[in-house]
UniProtKB/TrEMBL annotation, chain A:
SUPFAM superfamilies: Thiamin diphosphate-binding fold (THDP-binding), TK C-terminal domain-like
Domain of life: Bacteria
Entry similarity comment: Belongs to the transketolase family.
Protein name as it appears in the record: Transketolase family protein
Alphabetically ordered keywords of this record: Thiamine pyrophosphate
Domain Transketolase-like pyrimidine-binding residue range list: 5-170
Cofactor: thiamine diphosphate
InterPro entries reported in the protein's UniProt record: PDH/Transketolase, THDP-binding, Transketo_C/PFOR_II, Transketolase-like_Pyr-bd, Transketolase_C
Originating species: Sphaerochaeta halotolerans
PANTHER family for the chain: PYRUVATE DEHYDROGENASE E1 COMPONENT, TRANSKETOLASE-LIKE PYRIMIDINE-BINDING DOMAIN-CONTAINING PROTEIN
From TrEMBL, chain B:
The organism's place on the tree of life at top rank: Bacteria
One Pfam family from the record: Transketolase_N
Keywords for the protein's UniProt record, in alphabetical order: Thiamine pyrophosphate
CDD domains (UniProt xref): TPP_TK (cd02012)
Name of this chain's protein: Transketolase
InterPro entries reported in the protein's UniProt record: THDP-binding, Transketolase_N
Residue ranges annotated for the Transketolase N-terminal domain, each copy included: 13-248
Necessary cofactors: thiamine diphosphate
Signal sequence extent: none
Transmembrane segments: none
UniProt source species: Sphaerochaeta halotolerans
Sequence similarity: Belongs to the transketolase family.
Length: 318, 277
């Protein structure tokens, strides 16, 4: 378990390093410094931290204001509140007003597990994709999270980054040998020509594990990490459709409006081939922690592999 | 119930909620313990309710706006007979109906809360509706003090006095702490009483861990005709477990075996003391 790392720690450790060199970086939080692993940041750079209290709408509005006067604000708080309660501020004050605000949503997806649907974030890709000029990134591990922070820190613009809560296994190991992150580009984590598995966020690891299981059955899957959900790497998807003839998408999001919907739209418009979406159903979930929920809804390696096998047999009889 | 019996009942609720958290290895311990006396008084003495008929038309309504304090709420509901107490041992387990926030699939729970700053608006809606129907039912809402930073609370506060909702009784669990520390350091609330008064509320301030003061205040509410009532209940976060009292990290701390067993022994000796009075 020693190579398990939490993305939130990678995010704030990197941010602290960058902020020590750049006093215009201001971190804003809403009684969430613990949840965001910000305690060291607050102790080290108290003047570059603004506590807003439990007031997420105010939080995003204040960040927009800081941007107007030339600061480089980073909002850090639970994804569920920032993407629902503060949605209007995110749309109007940040994206529409072209402000330079980076929003980090922690404990996204089903990270909060047993706390229930008020605390789940399974709507963010669908919702935020409809806001022009908002870049959306779902890193898949700590190394990629660190690379994301470094990439966006000095870019001007509106960014939303969603990460999980728990310590998770590493995707971008030395052995893999892939550069963790290029903004707007898919990463090919595994080559294959039977079909393409497209994932993002925490489920990338489980997708890679599924690809290994499938390989034992003679199915060689290409695996794409679609870390940037917007702007979307359409070319990588069209290429995969042409070269592998079928795609399965895997995401920690509602089945509606997320990665699967995006991929399907692109494939349909450019090179129609079968696409299957694996995601959470359009219903309130059973009680469970995130790993229990992944397994329950067929989003763990075993579940993904099983769905892919069925899908492949359906496709080949078409 | 007598004050003595209610105190006894509150100890039972404290024991049960701590067991739930200890077994589940998750929970919001501090705020559940600070609000136990308030919830016990509401469910065992003050509110008109019928556990055998949770949707009884004549019932008073309760909304736990600080939904994270669900453990004490579930314990009280079970002990009052809304559902079988044995269900509590499944709290936060895979596929259990009992999650870490209130859910209205559970008998006795009106609304799904957990995102802070929603309860007062919901309560205003219920109070307006009840008034329109000329019904005598009252609406009780329990909020956290950190929760009061949400702007929506003050939108609801404004609406409550605008509509002269004297059937609405809101309670603030004033334990002076939220996750990151003291409320006054994180986002100052004082002068809290004056702020609510200036929004048109009739305010009473009590010791929210004194059963006598809690019952007296809740029974005296609504305090004034044509005005919503607010009770500022001064409490201690983690009340009843010395090691947890007034310490921010116990917001969602889970006791280890030693502390859990010690706390249960302490509760038992508190019970014995009560019986000897
Ligand atoms: C809208 C929203 N923002 C943030 C949270 C996360 N959260 C849960 S409890 C809590 C602190 C609550 O403090 P307080 O209201 O004082 O409650 P208490 O001290 O009674 O536990 C926070 C920030 C939430 N549940 N809802
Ligand atoms: Mg509090």
């Amino acid at each position: 378990m020693s190579d398990y790392r939490a993305c939130r720690e990678a995010y704030t450790t990197t941010l602290l390093t960058l902020a020590q060199e750049d006093p215009s970086i201001i971190v804003i939080s809403s009684d969430a410094r613990g949840s965001c692993s910000l305690n060291t940041f607050v102790e080290t750079l108290p003047d570059q931290f603004v506590e807003i209290g439990i007031a997420e709408q105010n939080e995003i509005g204040v960040a927009a204001g800081l941007s107007v006067v030339g600061k480089n604000p980073f909002v850090c708080a639970p994804a569920c509140f920032l993407t629902a309660r503060s949605l209007e501020q995110l749309k109007v004050d940040v994206a529409y007003s072209h402000q330079n605000v980076k929003v980090l949503g922690v404990s996204g997806g089903v990270s909060y597990g047993v706390l229930g649907s008020s605390h789940h974030t399974l709507h963010d890709i669908a919702t935020l994709r409809c806001i022009p000029d908002l870049t959306i990134i779902l890193p898949s591990d700590a190394a990629q999270t660190e690379a994301v922070v470094r990439t966006i820190a000095h870019q001007k613009g509106a960014f939303f980054i969603r990460i999980g809560r728990e310590k998770i296994p590493q995707v971008y190991t030395e052995e893999l040998g892939v550069k963790p992150f290029t903004l707007g580009k898919a990463n090919t984590l595994r080559e294959g020509d039977s079909l393409t598995l497209v994932s993002c966020g925490e489920l990338v690891y489980h997708t890679l594990e599924a690809a290994k299981l499938l390989s034992n059955e003679g199915i060689e899957a290409r695996v794409l990490d679609m870390a940037t959900l917007k702007p979307f790497d359409e070319e990588a998807i069209i290429k995969a459709a042409k070269e592998t003839g079928a795609l399965v998408t895997i995401e920690e999001h509602s089945i509606n409006g997320g990665l699967g919907a995006t991929v399907s739209q692109i494939v349909c418009a450019n090179h129609p081939v079968p696409v299957k979406t694996l995601a959470f159903p359009d219903e309130y979930l059973v009680t469970g922690n995130s790993l229990e929920l992944f397994a329950h809804y067929g989003l763990d390696a075993k579940g993904i592999a099983a769905s892919v096998t069925t899908f492949i047999s359906q496709v080949s009889t078409l | 119930m007598t004050i003595q019996a209610l105190k006894q009942q509150a100890l039972e609720v404290r024991k049960t909620l701590l067991s739930m958290i200890y077994q589940a290895k998750t929970g919001h311990t501090g705020g559940a313990l600070s609000s136990t006396d308030l919830i016990t008084a509401l469910y065992f003495e003050v509110m008109h309710i019928d556990p055998s008929n949770p949707k009884w038309e004549g019932r008073d309504y309760f909304i736990l706006s600080k939904g994270h304090s669900v453990e004490g709420y579930l314990s009280a509901l079970a002990k009052r007979g809304f559902f079988d107490e044995s269900l509590l041992s499944t709290f936060c387990q895979y596929k259990s109906p009992l999650i870490g926030h209130p859910n209205n699939k559970i008998p006795g729970i009106e609304m799904n809360t957990g995102a802070l700053g929603h309860g007062l608006s919901i309560s205003v809606g219920m109070a307006i509706g009840l008034k329109k129907d000329k019904k005598p039912n009252r609406v009780f809402t329990l909020m956290g003090d950190g929760e009061l930073a949400e702007g929506s609370v003050w939108e609801a506060a404004m609406a409550a006095s605008h509509y002269k909702l004297d059937n609405l009784i809101a309670i603030v669990d004033r334990n002076h702490l939220q996750i990151s520390g003291s409320t006054e350091d994180v986002m100052g609330l004082e002068p809290l009483r004056e702020r609510w008064e200036s929004f048109g509320w009739q305010v009473e301030e009590i010791d929210g861990n004194s059963m006598l003061e809690v019952v007296n205040a809740l029974k005296a509410a609504p305090f004034k005709e044509h005005k919503p009532s607010l009770i500022i209940a001064n409490t201690t976060k983690g009340k009843g477990v010395k090691e947890m009292e007034d310490i921010p990290s116990w917001h969602h701390g889970v006791p280890n075996q030693h502390l859990y067993e010690q706390a249960m022994l302490d509760f038992e000796s508190m019970e014995k003391e009560l019986q000897n009075v």
